[in-house]
Task: structure prediction
Amino acid sequence: MSRIGVAFDKARADGRALLVGCMPAGFPTVEGSIAAMTAMVEAGVDVIEVEIPYSDPVMDGPVIQKASDIALAGGVRTADTLRIVEAVAATGAPVVTMTYWNPIEQYGVDAFARDLAAAGGTGLVTPDLIPDEAGEWLAASDAHGLDRTFLVSPSSTDARLKMTVEHCLGFVYATAIMGVTGARAQTSDAAPILVSRLREVTDLPVGVGLGVGTGAQAATVAGYADGVIVGSALVRCLLDAPDSAAGLTALRTLSAELAEGVRHRAR
Result:
C-alpha cells in the first residue's frame, strides 16, 4: 500500500479525516517554502502537497497564482521542487506533488517519476492530465511505485467517474466546485453528492479540495470526505504577513485550526 493509503487508513482508524495542506514550491523562497511546509506538519497537517509553480495555472485562483509568480520570479525550477520534496519528506509526513503536465514533459516523464520517487515523494496530482491521455504517466508511475491522482468534478458523468477512479492510485481528488481554487465563505453543496457518487464506484479514499479555509469548514467537509485539501487559505498566511516570522506564526495557527477541525468533524 502507498504511504498516502497508510495515512488515510490511520486517520480512519482514529475516527477522523486526513488533512492535506498545499504550498507552491519556492514560495516565498526555496528555503522559505521548506520552513513553511515543515511548520504545517508540526502544527498537525498530515500530508503536504507541493505544487510545482507554472506560468499558466488554469485551475489555480489568484492567491496561488500570485505565490507561484513569486516563486517563478525567484528562479525556482523543477529540480528545486524535488529538493523541497526531499526535505519535507524527511519530516516523516507523506509528500505528494501537484503539477500541470507541461513541466513534467519538459523534464522527461520517466526521469521525473524516477527522481520524485528517489526524493521520497509519494505520487502526483495532475489537474490538467486526464486518464485518456496519460499512457506515459501510467507506465512511469507503475515503474517507479508512485501514486497517481486524477481529478473529478460535480459535472463528471457516472461513466467518467468510474473510468477515472480505475486509473487512480492512493486517493481520488474531488473538486468541490466548478472553478478555480480559493477559500470561500461557504463549502460546496455539490461536494457531498459527488463524494456519494464516488462511493458507488470506488473504495479509494476521497479527498475534497477547493474552497476550505477555516476549521469549521474543514469539520464540515470531514463529515463526508476521507481527506480535506486546503491550499489558498494557507498560502494567504504568508502572502498577507508583514514579514516571514509573522507569516509562519499565522501559518501554524491556521494549520492547527484546520487540524482540529478534521479531528472534530461534523456528524
Observations:
- The chain has a mean pLDDT of 92.
- DSSP finds twelve helices and nine strands in the chain.
